[in-house]
Every structure is written in structure tokens, then in C-alpha cells.
User: Fold these one by one.
Assistant:
Number 1:
Amino acid sequence: MSVMASKAARLSGLAILVVHVGEVALAAVHAVEVGGHEDAGAALGAHLAQALHLARVVHLVELEHPELDLLVLVLLLLGLGVGLLLALLGTTQQAHEDVHLRVIAHAAGLQALGILQLAAAEHHALLISGDALAGLDG
């Protein structure tokens, strides 16, 4: 009889421990995130079932402090927003660099155009003076 009582005491202690771990619910969200990293071929349905099961469990849990619920939701939304923000910043940075390259290329093109116009004017002046080959001597 004492063996049954000690098992019951251990199980009740374990249940209390599980209740305390389940209150925060951060580890549960992390478990879903880690579960999706595997190379899932045929196991895709199993991961989906695990995620749906966890969603049901999270909805059934009532926390004593509702501020923690809001904090967890805000942190999750910020985590998702950071991923989106990083993706958008990468494209914005690339577009910003493209604009700078276009400005530099445009300025270089205008400078090259000015040099070509000066060379053409000099060549034209040499042709008018009758010494067309004088510019080739250096």
C-alpha cells in the first residue's frame, strides 16, 4: 500500500510541476518552431497534427496572470515582425545601392560625354586649321 501512496505522491508532484511549466507557455511555442525544422517528406502530416494538438492545449490553458498572455502574444508578433522587417530591409538596402550606382553611372556618363565633346571640338579645330594629323603626334 505504501508503494501505491509513494507513486501517487510522485505523480501529484509531477502534475504540479507540469502545471507550473504550462503556465508560461513559451516552451510550447518553441517546441512547435523546432518541430518544423526537420526535412519533412512523409512526416508533414505528423508535424501538422502536433502543431494542431499544441494549439488546442494552449487554448485550454487558463493562466492566472492575463498580462503574461498579452506579453507572450506581443513577443510572438514582434518575432514575426522582425523577420518581415529584416526581409524588407534587405530589399530596401539593395534598392538604395542601385540608386547610388545609377547616380554614379550617370555622373560618370556626363563626365565622359564632356570629355568626348572636348575631344571632338579639338579635332574639329584641327580639321579647320588643316592639320588633321597633328593631334596624333602627342
Number 2:
Amino acid sequence: MDKKYRIKDAFLEFFKKNKNAVYLLPILVVVLIIAIVVFINGEIYIPASNINLQDQTDNSPVDGHDGITASNTIEILPKIERSEEDKKNNSNIISNSSANPFELPMKVTGVVIESNDKSIAIIETAHTSYIVKVGDFISDSWQVRNIEENGVLLVNGQKEAHIPFDD
């Protein structure tokens, strides 16, 4: 019996000396219980590597999980060339390497000016948006030569074209 009381007294003495432990130990126990429950229940987290969206063509749930369908896609940004979804069938006009981007209405919708040729411009056509810097190509033929506050200068061989910035 004396041993039992010594252990109890040791715990009481420990908690008297360490008053923070009175609050921290129960919180630690609760956090550990939550962590164990999360690790045991594997359906809370579905790794993206386990879902293969390209092999499936229907919109049925993937691996029996509701809300994740085969039509979901993952895009990694920054994406330099963006096509509009509803005009996706017509975007092959722009993607052709010999296509002239000036055959369609083209405008500069945004410019970020920085020193050391690190400026960025957003150029939009009817079907595609391009995020470009000096030296980048548009439609594999027109190269961005210069980005200024008032527009962008494009070069294709001996041809030059200046697209003004529309505020």
C-alpha cells in the first residue's frame, strides 16, 4: 500500500511543480487520438497519384468515390498558352505552326514592366491567350522582340508588328 501512495504522491508533486502539464497533457492525448483516427480512416485523403483520369472516358465515379469523376482535370500553372474551353474545337487554327496570329483579332490585355528584359505581356486572340516575355514565340512563328508600356513588338523573319496595349 505504501508503494501505491508514493506513486500517487509523485504524480501530484509533478503536477504541482509543472502546472502547464495539467493542461498540456490532456490536449496532447486528444491530438494523438485524432491523429490515430485520421490515419486509420483512409478515405479522408485520396492521393492524386491513385486516380488515373486519362484512361477513363465516362463520367462515372472514380474508384467508387462520389464527387471525383473522370472529367476532372489537373492543370499545372503557369500555363503560357491557354485556349478557351467552349472554343476548343476551333483552336487548331492558332496551333498550326504556319498560322498567322494576326489573321484573327489580337490585342494586348496586360503588361508587367520590369528591368533586365523580365517584362511580361498577356496577348489574347479570339481563341487563345498567351503569357509571354521577351524571346517567347506566339504560334511557333512570331517572336516577342520588345515589351513596352504602350504595346508589344512581334517579329517574324523580316516582318515586324506592333500590337498596342488596350487599357
